[in-house]
Amino acid sequence: MADLTGGELVAKTLKQAGVNHIFTLCGGHILPIYDGCLTHGIQIIDVRHEQAAAHAGDAYARLTRGIGVAVVTAGPGVTDSVTGVVNAYAARSPLLLIGGAAMIGLKGMGALQDIPQLPLFGSCTKGTWSVPETRLIPEMLTAAMRTALTGRPGPVFVEIPIDTLINSVEDRLAPIPTGYVHRNPQAGDPQSIERFADLLTRAERPLVMAGSGVYWDDAAADLARFAERAGVPVFMNGAGRGCLPSDHPLAFSQARGFALSNGDVVIVLGAPLDFRLGYGRPPTFAEDATVIMVDSDPTELGRNRPLALGLVGHIGLILRQGAGGLPSGLPSRFEKWLGQVRDKEREGREKLEAQAVSDQVPISHYRWAREIAQVVDANTIVVGDGGDVVNCAAKFVPLQRPGQWLDPGQFGCLGVGPSFAIAAKLLHPERKVLLISGDGAFGLNGMELETAARFNLPMTCIIGNDGGWGQIRNPQISFWGEARAVGTSLPFTRYDRMVEALGGRGLLITEPKEIRPALETALASDEVWCLNVVLDPAAYRKTGQVSLAI
Predict the structure, then answer these.
(1) Are β-strands 128-130 and 432-438 bridged in parallel, bridged antiparallel, or unpaired?
(2) Taking Cα atoms as reference points, which of 127, 150, 163, 166 lies closest to residue 67?
(3) DSSP state, 194?
């Protein structure tokens, strides 16, 4: 029988779970885990801040629909990661955060970096564990991963004291569990499916709002078949973006406000009725709309608005069941409604295009976004990290497949971009990775482009540099005037030079015609690039697109 350290047991358990990378920042409390990872073939990606490690683990989980792992040292390492864990919780991302801890016998005695760590995660994880013995490491890690992956996915936290990691145990005394995760898709009950089909069949102006749950349930193909069978317009948000290709005849984006406020039956798939959907209430939704929700989490059903029908289960299975109950020829019933939505979509597109042809200097946000859209193809993973500049880019960038677009999600946490891009490139080295960032957002974790350069992970970061926190500054100016706008301005920093100093390539862009050639060069290269594009700070506000981020 072989003796294994606690660090080796961590690595063996993760490897068996299919984890090939961990994201970390070093600390003495977690060094045995590094040694175990080297032995068992798990690549260690060391970043520059623990928050970035948590964000990268979050993105890894999203892109694999499996476990993403961040490993941080005790005390400040754990506290630094809390924001990333909260963001993963809001996004339903199964992140496993492993935190080091002081020796068991020294807890509460003032040991280095010793604090009560589990209470920090009580409200933002699905569960927390502290491992008291080396032999229990596999059992408790697998329990945590099972919890993270089943039901509504979400992050978990496991604390492992340093002596537990250093100590050894015979492998026969610490078996690694197998078959511990069972994610069996749950179908809808026949009565509910019949009512689902009946409500849609009786509708006059139906629509589908497809959210992140469609992505998590890998239900994009089922969504397409359902939409085509019913002939209904589909709108997407969150990780649901790309679940129908942008050029699909039933995929819409610019007409969303019109459709929601006029629709009589709204089918909400895996999208919470939160601020992004006006809490499901008027004026965003029609007051008398019939709302149907499908979600893996029963607590979302009926939150903020009464429902005509709420179904708990696997979105793909329920869509298949629902489609099977629809009469043939149903799309003809909705032709007039679909034509109205298409007209509104076309009007919205024409307005966008009119704003995007400007040759003004400084560059307008819409021209910047349109130039970016021209270079995004199906082989490009796009990460959005910012406020107004990303909102603008999202209006233009075409998406062809699920998982092609990554953004913070419901929590609206800026600074995720570099970490998300790193995880995307690690998992998909054959694809181009484009990070679209605001200048404010980039400042939070921009040092991670050094991580990308150090690990030879080519990617392109294009910064919309409008010299401030635009999504906050613009309404601030609108409410209180330029003279009282404080705390929201930034200098036009030469981030391109910063990235050059970190081992990448940089370019300052001030003319609209320079954007696309620079993007084509950067995306085709095998280096880390930063394209620092100077935008007009007032341009977005002049279009009337002022939103207060609350």
Answers:
(1) unpaired
(2) 150
(3) H
- In sequence order, what are the residues at sequence separation of 6 or more whose Cβ sits closer than 8 angstroms to the Cβ of residue 324? none
What global pTM score does this model have? 0.95
CB-CB neighbours of 292 under 10 Å: 23
What is the helix (H) or strand (E) element at residue 459, kind and residue range?
A: strand 459-465
Whether 539 and 364 have beta carbons less than 8 Å apart is answered as yes
Q: How confident is the model at residue 367 (pLDDT cuts 50, 70, 90)?
A: very high
Cα distance between residue 445 and residue 467, in whole Å: 17
pLDDT band at 349 (very low <50, low <70, confident <90, very high): very high
- Torsion sign (Cα): 496, 499, 501, 507: negative
Q: What CA–CA distance (Å, rounded) separates 412 from 361? A: 30
3-state helix, strand, coil in the chain (%, to 5): 45, 20, 35
DSSP annotation of 227 reads H
What confidence tens digit (pLDDT) does each residue in 381-416 have?
999 999 889 999 999 999 999 999 999 998 989 999
- Give the Cα separation of 405 and 397 in Å (integer): 9
Please, which residues have CB within 8 angstroms of residue 520's CB and are 6 or more apart in sequence?
A: 375
Terminus-to-terminus CA distance in the chain, angstroms? 59
Spatial contact of 280 and 149, defined as CB atoms under 8 Å apart: no
Tokens of 169: 């145990």
Residue type, 330: L
CA–CA distance, 61 with 431 (Å, rounded to integer): 18
- 225 alpha-carbon distance from chain centroid: 25
The answer to whether residues 165 and 132 touch, using CB atoms and an 8 Å cutoff, is no
For residue 545, what pLDDT band results from cuts at 50, 70 and 90?
low
User: If you ran DSSP here, which 8-state letter would residue 20 be given?
Assistant: -
Rounded-to-integer distance, Cα 66 and Cα 63, Å: 8
